[in-house]
Design goal:
Blueprint: H1 15-28, E1 34-38, H2 43-57, H3 62-65, E2 67-71
Parallel strand pairs: 1-2
Helix pairs in contact: 1-2
Length: 77
């Protein structure tokens, strides 16, 4: 399973790039699972924003249904 990091200063909106990457990966392989890791304090907000962006950019709702958003601390468990 490949791993890709997308990071930068908090002052830059990375959501467009994340949404485009998710859509591209889903088009390459329909059953691919996507995991999106976010800081604990913005998990819910990040999920809502990503879902909205995916709906804007995608022709179908399929990428929305196969992605998971986790808080960082879930990696430790």
């Amino acid at each position: 399973m490949p791993l890709k990091f997308m990071y930068g200063p908090a002052s830059v909106d990375h959501l467009d790039a994340v949404a485009e990457t998710i859509i591209e990966l889903q088009q390459q392989q329909k059953q691919r699972k996507i995991y999106y890791l976010v800081p604990n304090h913005i998990k819910f907000q990040s999920e809502i924003q990503l879902l909205q962006k995916l709906r804007e950019k995608s022709d179908s709702a399929s990428p929305v249904l196969r992605k998971r958003i986790f808080k960082f601390y879930r990696l430790a468990g």
